[in-house]
Amino acid sequence: MKIIRGLHNLSQHKGCVVTIGNFDGVHLGHQEVISRALIKSKSLGVPFVVVTFFPTPQSFFSRPQPSISSFKDKHLLLDSLGVDVHLIINFNKRFSEIRAEDFIEQLLVEKLKMGYCLVGDDFRFGKDRIGDFKMLERLSYINGFHVESTSSVLHKSDRISSSEIRSLLCSGEFALASSMLGREFSITGKIIHGDKKGRTIGFPTINIPIKRKISPILGVFAVEVEIDNKRHYGVCNLGKRPTVDGLKTLLEVHIFNFDYDVYGLQAKVIFKKKIRSEERFPSIDALKQQISLDTQATKDYFKI
Asked: Could you give the strand order of the β-sheet that contains 114-120, starting from the edge strand earlier in sequence?
């Protein structure tokens, strides 16, 4: 999959199929849109382009949301689904003031040479979010492209959406969130050196940086950790560690019966059950005692 960062790097297209959105989590609803767009692009013999924005419009307008997937994870998921081009538009003040009609005619038609567009049924765009499917449909006749709206994908009777998945993750409902994502929720990253405080209290950890401004989950969790294609059980803390006056959100995992040098390797942390919320303890001894309880609760969950 080719990544194009910024409209200034966009070369001329002879035609393409386009879909637009944030695609956070690349959940089953997103996958349905992408699947239909791929079928159309193959039938037309043109590339399939996914258009996203950085930062997201919500973040730009000071309404940041937790991210289900990091940029790297989103890229890998889009690539695995067969997307040809990922166009990332810099969402700044100038871009935020583009009229919806100009977004269609100047970007989608003139620059991308869009022949077919698929969007979600709630898609809005342009200054003040004036643009919608009806506008796309009206301008399609004038500009010679086709547009199709995709209805919401349901899990049982619930609409699959990134906001619903965030809510489920926050409340610890990982099984239901996974059924909407189409995979288990996980965080992947390179194992780095931490401050080694876990070792001093008898619970050494591997440390993985969080590549997102706001995590969708915080607390203590039972997890499985995949390193070098092998899975291990463990308990993790994802948060700022208030007891030791931490400031940065960290992911620390204590892996059971594990004593290997894995610094620099990739680890995939798969979240299975929420044990408790993060909290401040009056002392390190109180924290150590709670970690022992968390560890036992996790082992009880895994039956080990």
From this structure: 2-5, 85-90, 48-54, 16-20, 114-120, 146-150
CA-to-CA dists, residue 76 to 11, 12, 72, 202, angstroms:
23, 25, 6, 36
Q: Please state whether beta strands 206-209 and 219-227 pair in parallel, antiparallel, or not at all (unpaired).
A: unpaired
- Class of the domain covering 2-155: alpha beta
Which residues in the chain are classed under CATH 3.40.50.620? 2-155
> Which amino acid appears at position 59 of this protein?
S
Please tell me the class of the 184-302 domain.
mainly beta
pTM as predicted? 0.91
DSSP 190-253: E-B----HHHHTT---EEEE--SSS-S--EEEEEEEEETTEEEEEEEEEE--GGGT--S-EEEE
Cβ count within 10 A of residue 31: 17
Angle formed at CA 223 by CA 219 and CA 224, multiple of 5 degrees: 160
Q: 151 pLDDT exceeds 90?
A: no
Rounded to 5 degrees, what are φ and ψ at 68?
-70, -40
How does DSSP classify residue 91? Answer: -
- From residue 42, alpha-carbon distances to 26, 56, 70 in Å are 21, 29, 29
Q: Which two structure tokens, joined as six digits, stand for 241?
A: 């560690």
- Secondary structure (DSSP) of 254-270: EETT-----TT-EEEEE
For the four alpha carbons of 287, 292, 293 and 298, in that order, the dihedral sign comes to: positive
For residue 133 the two structure tokens come to 């499917």
Q: Measuring CA to CA, how many Å separate 197 from each of 34, 59, 206, 278?
A: 45, 34, 11, 17
pLDDT tens for residues 207-259?
998 887 789 999 999 999 999 999 999 999 999 876 666 668 889 999 999 98
Tell me which H or E stretch contains 102.
helix 100-102
List every span in the chain annotated with CATH 2.40.30.30.
184-302
